[in-house]
Amino acid sequence: MDHGGWYDLKTKEKEFKEIVDIIFCSAMGPPGGGRSSLTQRLQRHYNILNYTNLGAESIEAIFKTILNRFLG
């Protein structure tokens, strides 16, 4: 992520593969139970979102709104 690409180590020439217009999307559970925290070095590449558990009515309202905007 920080260097704009990687070197192709499988080829003899070790050609640099540049990454252009890419989006990384990740998901994880909270730290604990064998899961470690994210380092600041990795976190700087992401927008961190956190939410509490939602009830069934809230989830339904969210997805109905999204679908109505998309299909309507």
List strands and helices in order, with pairings:
Blueprint: E1 5-7, E2 16-18, H1 40-43, H2 56-71
Antiparallel strand pairs: 1-2
Q: Would you mind describing this structure in some detail?
A:
A two-stranded antiparallel ribbon has the order 1-2. 0% of the residues are buried. The radius of gyration is 19 Å and the shape is flat. It has 72 residues and is α+β, with helices and mostly antiparallel strands. Helices cover 28% and strands 8% of the residues. The chain has one domain (5-71).
Short description:
This protein is α+β, with helices and mostly antiparallel strands and 72 residues long. It contains two helices and two strands.
Q: What descriptive keywords fit this protein?
A:
72 residues, alpha+beta, two-stranded antiparallel sheet, 2 helices
The figure for the number of domains is 1
Specify the number of helices: 2
| Largest sheet properties | 2 strands, antiparallel
Tell how many strands the DSSP assignment holds.
2
